[in-house]
Every structure is written in C-alpha cells, then in structure tokens.
Amino acid sequence: MKSYRKELWFNAKQRREIINITPQVNECLSDSGVKEGLCLVNAMHITASVFINDNESGLHSDYERWLEKLAPEKPYDQYAHNGYEDNADAHLKRTVMGREVVVAITDGNLDFGPWECIFYYELDGKRDKRVLVKIIGE
To answer: Rounded to an integer, what is the distance from CA 128 to the centroid of its chain?
Structure first.
C-alpha cells in the first residue's frame, strides 16, 4: 500500500474566505500515484474548515449569512472565550462546518458526485494556516 502526505498552505486576505482547493487536491492525487484508495483532506487549525459542496457563489454567500446568524462575530464580549483573541465565533462556525472530508479514489480520480468540490473555509484569516492531504491506497 502507498501512503502520501502533503500540507497545503493558505493565507486568506479576509477574516472569512471560501477557497476551492479541488485542483490542489487533484495535483496531490496525481503526485501520489494512488489509483484505488482514500483521500483525507483536513484543516489543521481550529478556526478553519474543509467541506464538500457545490462551487456556486450564491451558496457560498448563504453559508456566510447562515453561520453569522448561528454564531455572530460581534459583539465580541458575548463570548467567554474572547479575551486575548476575538475569534470565538470562528471556533463555533468550524464546529458546524466540520474539520475534514474523505473522498474515495477510483481509477486514479477523486470519486465525486455531481457538482462536488472540496473547499477550504477560512474563519479567522489573515495569517498562515494549513490543510493536510493524506492519501492511502494502491
């Protein structure tokens, strides 16, 4: 069995940003040489998420509005966590959006359903953060 690991680094210019990372994950898959197996993609920071959905800007705006209703960024003093940092809302949003995705690899391709893409969702940006891609298989 083959095993491949790579870190993808991001520095979002805004506090929150959704980035389609499907091309980078496909490049990792190609580099791995794995034809049948599994691909794990996970955010390595507790204020970022990796998820799968449609690459449609309206949906991305809907996420932003929906999450802001669930865990509004401000006022900062509504959260016990906020003190040194003001990112309690990002921690809560990450819990909702999830940490990782696993995608089957079939015949050397990510085995997606229609319209599926992998996204990195930065929830407390403006600094370097990473995503782990781990691929195992034959």
So the answer is: 14
